[in-house]
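Appendix B, example 12.
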Amino acid sequence: MDPSEKKSRLRALHVVLILSFIANGLGAFSNLMMSLPAMRSTLSENMQLIPEVLHETYEMMLSIPATYYIATAIFSAVAFFGCLRMWRLKGIGFHYYTIAKLLLIATPLVFIGRQYLNLGDVMMSLLFIAYYFISLRALGAFSNNSDDTEDPSASTTSNPSDPSENHDNPESSENSD
C-alpha cells in the first residue's frame, strides 16, 4: 500500500472512530446516569414536566432494572476503550470493541426481552465491526508488530548473567592466557 492510500484509509478510519467515540461515550454516560437511584427518582417525581406523549416511554425506562443500565454502561465503556486502541492501530482494540458490541446486542435480550431488540442497532453494530476489521487489516493492525508487547529482539537491556556479553566490567576486557 502506498503512503497516500494509507493516509487516506487512516483518515477515513479516524472519521468513523470519532462517530464510535461519540456513540459509546454518550452511551456509557447516559446508562450510568440511568443506573443511579437519584436520577431514577428524579425522573419519576418530575413526570408531570415531561410531555404526555413521552410518559409511556419514560415509565418503560424506569421499569427496566438498574443492573441493565450498569451492564450497558460497562459494555459501552469497553467499546470506547477498544476505539482508543484502534485509533492507535492496535488490533486488540478491535477485539475489545467487537466483544463489547456483541454484548450490547445481547443485553436487552437478557434483561428486557426480545421485543425490545433494535434491529437498527444490530445492523449498525455489525456494519461498524465489518468496517473496522477491513480497515485495520488493510492498515496492518493485526500483524505481530502491532500488539502491546515489545519485540524481544529490539530490547536494549542485556542479561547480566550472560558471560558472553560485555557489561562494562573491566575484568571482562582483559585477555586470558
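The first helix runs from residue 3 to 35. Confidence is low (pLDDT under 50) at residues 149-159, 169-177.
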